[in-house]
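Sat 14:20. Reprocessing the chain from the morning session after the first attempt stalled halfway. Input below, unchanged.
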Amino acid sequence: MKRSGRWYHWLYRGGRPNRVARAMNGASRVLHSTGLVNRLVTLEVRGRRTGRIISFPLVIADYQGERYLVAMLGQNTNWVRNVRAAGGHAVLRHGRRENVRLEEIEPAARPAILRRYLACAPGARPHIPVDRHARLEEFGRIAAQVPVFRITSQWGSPGET
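Finished this time. Tokens:
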């Protein structure tokens, strides 16, 4: 494993961010929310237990005219569990607020999106166990482990569900 890969694994040991990663994610949320970098967004979703709005910095992968969010840390990622509990209703912040509905993609349709995601999000590469240049069949082997959500715009106020 490359030196930078060890760093990222240390930051997210056990699939959860440690103290350093949480501090870095806080700074990332601010940057991602500004809209200065096209693919960077902050996802806001209602917490499944607290009901409070929780923010997560993420990278959008564009593929065949659609936009997608990928959970690089897998099924038990906090934002994935919150999105599922919220019925897919969320807000993206990237210079402006956008009410969205996140629709989970079936594993069979994920391989090409996952490959595109690794091209867009270099920081995710140590967490997804397939080389970004690998054939789609290799992405197909891990597709069920990595949730992918299609972003669709939704009308209404940011707090509506």
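The longest helix spans residues 19-34.
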